[in-house]
Structures are given as structure tokens and as C-alpha cells.
Design goal:
With about 170 residues, the chain is α+β, with helices and mostly antiparallel strands. It is about 35% helix and about 25% strand.
């Protein structure tokens, strides 16, 4: 019931898009997790190029990055690695958060963004979750005219990739 209620509440949220410099926003969110990552000896690399601009709601995308980084730490073994990257695909920017963690089985991949399945499991250090983070992440990405997907192989980590509108480059003749 909580998941369904939260999902209906999110539908009413309006995105307030603005140009965002993605690398600095990602750096801000990584800083929030330094202690937790250090405690698990997990390295986090921000490989997003400086000057990468997206058009999106700062609060929404901040939460998306926080959620994906938190999950990457939660489901990573001590000594693991997390990387954030972005690549331009025409009018969209593809942002990825990859980890070297435990991965997700093929059977569980389809449950991740579905409120009906209410999928959650404890992290590698028995960290708890309520199963709502990825639902919120999906709603916020979609409210910013993007999409999100995940690829994973059990025991080999996972990559969450979401898209956002890239800043239009003006060409002067």
C-alpha cells in the first residue's frame, strides 16, 4: 500500500528543468557517501566529462544519483568499485552508474521497477531497504523525459543507465 501511495504522489510532482552541469552534481552526491564507501573499501570514480550539461530538475536528478550510488554501495562487496559515466547520444545524454557488486539474476531484473512485485533484498553487509528507491528513481527520470534500464549478470555487477535531454548546442553561421 505504501508503494502504491508513493507512486500516486510522485505522479503529481512537476519537474522544473534547468541546465545542470552533471559532473559537479555527481561529485556532490559522491561526497555524501565517502564515509560509507570507505568503510566498505569501495572506490567511486566520477568519469563524467566536465562541461556535460543536461536539461533536468536538479532535485530529481540529485535524488536519482543518490539512490543509484547508495544501491551500488549496498550491493557491492568490500574492495569493490563504482563508476559514473556519461555519453552523448544526439539530443540525449546517457548516464550510467556501474558497480562490481553481486549483480542481479535474470529472474529478478524484471521486478526492479515494478510496484506490484515490491522487490527488495538485504545488501552485502545486511543493509536493509524498503524497495521504494528504484520506483522513485524511475518516476523522477521519466518526469524529466528520460528512461532508465539496467543490465546485470549475477556475480559480475550491474549497470543502471538513464537518459536525460542534452543541452542543445547553438550553431552560429
Amino acid at each position: 500500500n505504501l508503494l502504491m501511495w508513493a507512486q500516486t504522489q510522485l505522479k503529481g510532482l512537476q519537474a522544473l528543468p534547468e541546465p545542470l552541469e552533471l559532473k559537479s552534481l555527481a561529485d556532490e552526491k559522491i561526497t555524501l557517501f565517502k564515509e560509507v564507501a570507505n568503510a566498505k573499501r569501495i572506490s567511486i570514480a566520477n568519469e563524467i566529462e566536465p562541461g556535460t550539461i543536461v536539461i533536468a530538475d536538479r532535485n530529481h536528478i540529485g535524488l536519482v544519483l543518490r539512490n543509484l550510488i547508495a544501491n551500488a554501495i549496498k550491493f557491492n562487496e568490500p574492495g569493490g568499485h563504482i563508476s559514473l559515466s556519461a555519453r552523448n547520444d544526439g539530443d540525449m545524454e546517457e548516464i550510467s552508474v556501474s558497480d562490481s557488486g553481486v549483480g542481479i539474476s535474470a529472474a529478478d531484473l524484471g521486478k526492479l521497477f515494478n510496484a506490484e512485485t515490491h522487490f527488495t533484498r538485504p545488501g552485502t553487509n545486511k543493509e536493509k531497504g524498503v524497495g521504494i528507491g528504484l520506483l522513485i528513481t524511475k518516476e523522477f527520470v521519466e518526469s524529466n523525459h528520460g528512461s532508465i534500464r539496467v543490465t546485470s549478470e549475477l556475480g559480475k555487477g550491474r549497470t543502471f543507465t538513464f537518459t536525460l535531454k542534452a543541452r542543445a548546442v547553438e550553431v552560429f553561421a
